[in-house]
Amino acid sequence: MGGALLDHWMSGGENFTIVDPMLEQAPDNVRLVKDRAAIADDRFDTIIVAIKPQMIDDVLPDYAANLGDDGYVLSIAAGASAARLKKAMGGAPVVRVMPNLPAAVGKGTSGVLAGPDVSEAQASHAMEMMQRTGTAIAVESEDMLDRATAVAGSGPGYVFEIARAYVAAAEELGFAPDQARALVLGTMEGTIAMALANPDTALEDLRNSVTSKGGTTAAGLDALNGDGGLSDTLSATLQSAYDRAVELR
Ligand SMILES: NC(=O)C1=CN([C@@H]2O[C@H](COP(=O)(O)OP(=O)(O)OC[C@H]3O[C@@H](n4cnc5c(N)ncnc54)[C@H](O)[C@@H]3O)[C@@H](O)[C@H]2O)C=CC1
Ligand SMILES: O=C(O)[C@@H]1CCC=N1
Q: Which of 24, 31, 49, 211 is deepest in the core (most CB within 10 A)?
């Protein structure tokens, strides 16, 4: 995820250094080191946390001394609370963000939460960084960021899975894989574009505009969610992802 964001962050004026023991290559003009020892004497305005949440308590304390005066921590880690990050970073201010993977194509949707002691300048820098990767929405509490994680952070996983199942069903109906993929992704893209172009029209009304009485869409929708099963599945999906974010705090 860090790499996808970096490609868009680089349109700003900052200089970036990556510390990653595994990464073999970084974009042009980005310094890559394998170990913190290589930057032991360097100070940074922002330290970006893009490691797995489970590693934070082991890895982060080593970096507390690398944050310059007036510096802040920007974390993309799911769940990990500002309090936990702040403690690991020797009391530094923390902005938590929750991006999603379409940031890779400049179409990310992020939640942004400024933790305690974050200055206005730091909060607006973090917001501007996330806006370089797509849309960014400020949220008011850590709990809402964890809820945004369940909806949008993990969301591309659900959408890819729905698209995969939709394509598989089109193949079962007789289409070749490339035809099925083109029909499904084209339909999804066009439908989302139409919803975005009509922000004041309820999604229910847009759905009804496709649905002729006694027609094919009504028959399909009855099978899809006539018993509310799809709605229940989506509620359970978001609740499970949120519960996991809470466990990762
Ligand atoms: N994948 C996604 O769609 C999203 C991920 N996130 C968050 O992004 C973070 C990273 O997740 P992914 O990118 O999926 O994982 P990843 O496994 O692709 O990336 C983690 C990176 O950390 C590096 N790393 C491992 N140990 C390290 C160390 N000691 N010091 C420095 N770097 C180290 C790895 O080499 C790897 O490049 C997680 O906290 C996750 O919650 C947030 C939103 C979306
Ligand atoms: O699955 C995860 O935990 C990360 C956070 C949101 C998307 N991927």
A: 49
- The pTM is what? 0.95
Residue 52 is labelled as binding a ligand: yes
Ligand 1 nearest atom to the CA of residue 19, by list position: 31
Tens digits of residue pLDDT in 26-71: 999 999 999 999 999 999 999 999 999 999 999 999 999 999 999 9
Q: Which ligand 2 atom lies nearest to the CA of residue 248?
A: 3
Minimum CA distance residue for ligand 2 atom 1: 154
Pairing status of strand 44-49 against strand 31-33 = unpaired
Query: CA–CA separation, 130 vs 100, rounded Å?
Result: 10
pLDDT in the model for residue 247: 96
Domains parsed from the chain with CATH numbers: 2-139 (3.40.50.720), 155-247 (1.10.3730.10)
Per-residue burial over 43-79, b if 16 or more Cβ lie within 10 Å, else e, is ebebbbbbbebeebeeebeebeebbeeebbbbbbbbb
Which bin fits 42, alpha (ψ -120 to 50), beta or left (φ > 0)?
beta
- Which helix (DSSP H) or strand (DSSP E) does residue 168 occupy? helix 155-172
- Does the Cβ of 53 fall within 6 Å of ligand 2? no
Cα separation, 180 vs 31, whole angstroms:
43
What atom in ligand 1 is closest to the CA of residue 59?
29
